Amino acid sequence: MARHERCYRRCQEILDLEHYLDVLERKAGALAGSKPLEQWRRLGRWPASYDQLWQRLREKQPGTRQMIELLQLASQQGWQRFEAAVATALELECWDAAAVRYLMTNSSEPGRPAELIDVGALARYERPLPEMTHFDQLLEVSA
To answer: What is the domain extent for residue 39?
Structure first.
């Protein structure tokens, strides 16, 4: 069941982009000129960061399909989480849908730095690196 805000004027269309994502997945090229996207932009639900990510995704194929998949994930995981993941990806200059997907599904807790451990007991396993000079001499002879 779909929910829409109430329309008080006559002949007005209120379209929610979330309701069209399944259709747009099959016809990905229709996203750019779609009325729901235009309405979301007008309402401020589509920030410039989404366009920046989408542009970077389109530089690789199939960028629009990947953007639609991310939007579908955002409708399940939450739009605030998606917006934060997009902002982080842009900040890290990471233009990959898999990275945004990871940032969205990753726990919201910041990672704690790894603890340094004492490797004193492991020092006994340290071995010197092999000498390659003899091998290089063999290559010169065979050439």
So the answer is: 17-109
How many domains does the chain divide into? 1
Strand, helix or coil at 119?
coil
Domain contains 84: yes
Tokens 């779909």 belong to which residue?
2
52 falls within a domain: yes
Torsion angle, alpha carbons of 15, 19, 25, 28, to 10 = 10
Instruction: Encode pLDDT of 29-54 as tens digits.
Output: 888 888 888 988 988 899 999 999 99
Domain assignment of residue 132, yes or no:
no
Each residue of 71-81: b (16+ CB within 10 Å) or e?
bebbeeeeeeb
pTM of the model as a whole: 0.65
